[in-house]
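Protein modeling request. Please complete all fields; requests missing the sequence field cannot be processed.
Requester role: graduate student
Desired output: 3D structure, token encoding
Chains: 1
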Amino acid sequence: MRVHFKVTGPLVWLDEDGGPNGNFNVHDYIRMAREHYEKVGLGADYINALIR
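Delivered output (52 residues):
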């Protein structure tokens, strides 16, 4: 399976007053991919071949 995600900005969580309370961005996706690839035996550096 090949998946393509096009992330054009961060996800920003807001508190009850509408102020920013956290975020999730492309760097978080890359970190999660590195952790997964390491866990399944491909090695964390495998992600480098997938990023232009």
